[in-house]
């Protein structure tokens, strides 16, 4: 089994939203669309307000709903633009248009006076995998774009203050009118397998025991994606790979990455040599030994009962989609 495809799109992989350069420059269209627009509010810690829609309540003996009804899932709570201002504020950023609605994003914070407690505000790590795909992607765009603005307030060329332009998709400096645009840092993430029934998983030194994933690293200047895959795997575990093939990509706004997924083949007989500054341990895992980990709690939901067991990333990361897809391909082959 030398090739496979992702069984589903990764979380945060994108949304059908119009990201048109002409739209960003059309101030008149911004004004006309603002009255019906929705706004994603993100606080300084990358959290947005989330609400849960209740599932139908089970009736009691009297036919009345029972207290403590189940929750069917989280939804991103956006704000009506007209409730914020009569027109787009200078610091609002345009995310795009979808299904006749315009979406913007602004910085904000919980308003406890309005019974909007901090516990209702969650970040992408904790809720992104549970949100509807469109809402997760819109929130990811808002987090990434606002984070860039926070860190681009001064020009990299002359140090003068910068100001937003093009509905938040550029900043221009005062001294030289230099334009700067949102940064995205490409990173490769690669599932290494033996072409048959085993996959190579590793644990970073900063991770707790039992937590394993596939290998990843940032693309360097002047480097191709495929060259980065080969270099990172050789550096981190000392293994040579071949048959490098693209799988898919995922926005990863922590703070501004793009995860570009690949798979590659390696020989499990080659000795593993760890980069002990980054990797604590690495091992080849047979497909059968993955069964329990695939059914077990992921990193975020792990309990004391899971201690000593192999734990895999949660659904938010493309890493989990890659592992699920490889396992499914191996199973179907048998």
Word description of this protein:
- Helices cover 23% and strands 29% of the residues.
- By secondary structure, it is α+β, with helices and mostly antiparallel strands.
- The protein has 2 domains: 21-55 and 70-150, Nucleoside Triphosphate Pyrophosphohydrolase (Alpha-Beta Complex); 185-333, Nucleoside Triphosphate Pyrophosphohydrolase (Alpha-Beta Complex), CATH 3.90.79.
- The strands form 4 sheets. Strands 11, 12, 13, 14, 15 and 16 form a 6-stranded mixed β-sheet that branches.
- A hairpin with a 4-residue loop joins strand 11 (185-193) and strand 12 (198-204).
- The chain is globular, with a radius of gyration of 23 Å.
- The protein starts with 20 loop residues before the first helix and ends with a helix.
- 33% of the residues are buried.
- The model is unreliable at 56-71 (pLDDT under 50).
- Keywords: Hydrolase, Magnesium, Metal-binding, NAD.
């Amino acid at each position: 089994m030398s090739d496979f495809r992702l069984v589903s799109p990764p979380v945060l992989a994108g949304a059908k939203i119009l990201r048109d350069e002409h739209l960003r420059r059309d101030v008149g269209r911004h004004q006309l669309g603002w009255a019906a627009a929705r706004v994603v509010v993100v606080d300084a810690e990358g959290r947005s307000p989330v609400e849960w829609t209740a599932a139908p309540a089970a009736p009691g003996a009297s036919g009345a709903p029972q207290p403590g009804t189940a929750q069917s899932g989280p939804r991103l709570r956006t704000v009506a633009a007209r409730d914020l201002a009569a027109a787009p504020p200078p610091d609002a950023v345009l995310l795009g248009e979808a299904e006749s609605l315009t979406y913007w994003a602004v910085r904000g914070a919980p308003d406890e006076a309005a019974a909007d407690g901090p516990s209702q505000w969650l970040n992408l790590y904790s809720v992104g995998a549970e949100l509807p795909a469109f809402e997760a992607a819109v929130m990811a765009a808002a987090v990434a774009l606002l984070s860039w603005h926070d860190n681009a307030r001064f020009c990299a060329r002359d140090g003068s203050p910068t100001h937003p332009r093009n509905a938040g998709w550029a900043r221009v400096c005062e001294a030289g009118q230099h334009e700067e645009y949102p940064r995205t840092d490409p990173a490769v993430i690669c599932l290494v397998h033996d072409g048959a029934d085993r996959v190579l998983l590793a644990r970073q030194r900063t991770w707790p025991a039992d937590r394993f994933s596939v290998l990843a690293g940032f693309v360097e200047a002047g480097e191709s994606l495929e060259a980065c895959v080969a270099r990172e795997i050789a550096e981190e575990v000392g293994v040579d790979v071949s048959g490098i093939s693209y799988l898919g990509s995922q926005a990863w706004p922590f703070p501004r990455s793009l995860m570009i997924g690949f798979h590659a083949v390696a020989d499990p007989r080659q000795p593993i040599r760890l980069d002990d500054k980054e990797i604590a341990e690495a091992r080849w895992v047979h497909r059968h030994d993955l069964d329990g980990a695939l059914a077990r709690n992921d990193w975020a939901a792990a309990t004391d009962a899971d201690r000593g067991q192999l734990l895999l990333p949660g659904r938010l990361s493309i890493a989990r989609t890659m592992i699920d897809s490889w396992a499914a391909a191996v199973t179907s082959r048998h």
